[in-house]
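Question thread 4412

I'm putting together a teaching handout and wanted feedback from people who do this every day. The idea is simple: show students a protein as raw sequence, then show them the structure tokens that encode its fold, then repeat with a second protein so they can compare. Below is the first pair exactly as I plan to print it.
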Amino acid sequence: MITNEYLQTLSRYNQWQNNEIFKTADTLSDNQRNECHGAFWGSIIGTLSHIYWADQIWLSRFDIIEAPEVGIKESSIYLSDWNILKSKREALDQQLIDWCDNFDEGIIKGNLEFFSGVLQKTVEIPISTVFTHFFNHQTHHRGQVNALLSLHSKKTGDTDLFLMPENLWP
């Protein structure tokens, strides 16, 4: 069961991990961030662009923000300017925290109906599944970015949820 506390915790974890990833990737050159190493979305910036794109898609289904103007195939090049991607990521992470902080206390219930571009049909799924997928998707691809960073002898630090700094917990 998904609760408001779960959403608050994972939205803060998301921000913490994104800050760590971007801080570490900032120490690389543009060429290193753009270098394709065979990851699913190619490069560090390509993978981070895809994560942002996917977050934007999901949040647009809740009418929080506008959907991106490109499809999934272009998601890795959606935000190819490093500084713009960083700025938009920071703003979206804060917007996500603010949104998650405003859910009523208790269990999050209901379904979300939306048109899936991947499936090319309208689907209806439990909101608990949406949020589980939303945060799992981010974590999955950040793991890929961590692997790409390690190719450049870079590390982000702790990624375990229970090690999130105390001041970040809701």
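The second pair follows. I'd like the answer to focus on this one:
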Amino acid sequence: MKKSILSAMVALFAITSFTSNGEILTSRSFYKEGPRMTWFVRGGVSLNSISGDFVKDFKNSAEARGDKMSFGMKPGFDISAGFQRYFGKKNLYWGAELGIGTRGFSAKYTHDYIEYDSNGNKVEVSEDYKASLSNINVKLPIFIGYCQPIGEHMKIDAHVGPYVSYDFTKSTKDDDNVFNRSYESLEYMADVVGVDAGAAVGIGFWYDHFLIDVTYQKGFIETVNYGGDKGTSSHIMFRIGYGF
């Protein structure tokens, strides 16, 4: 099943790239008018998080016991290769990329309680317990964008579009039984969904053939289904790249 989904995504990217235009421009033709197609590679870090009833219910459950539950971003990575196919002489383009990245989240449970020292005095104690989910996936974004020149070698690149992804590894850490305080452990009870689809919006800055890009992705399919509590993933990616 995993091989079939991965093969389908690779095949779709190959078909999309070849049918867009069989030409690959050299670096000297990158800024020329006429039919234009730019290939690029880019990579960087991603900050992955989760939202939804999964988050709200765990926070409310912790507060009901006088404790605290917080969800944060889990650092990861994102690398990809893709193309931009311009519409004639316009700055408008469409494209696609095939990449490998991560999604997930981090969580911290803070347990506050009172204990007494040897002299019978009250002592306030606060203990933190941490957990996280980190999946590695292959993904295929398809986007439409606009490159606005702002100088001889500079462009602002805005883009938006849908994406699909498939997780081929899963890594959970719940050594201190953070989630056991409400249900069972994250590793054994959470139904981690391996397929995601959503939308992305980003903006980049080109200087000659070099690119700096910031993109936000929001998933529409639940990342986890935990006792009926569902959560969807989101990512903020900071990447650098090079266009050919």
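Top answer:
Good format. For the second protein you could add a caption like this: The longest strand covers residues 122-149. Residues 22-34 have pLDDT under 50 and may be disordered.
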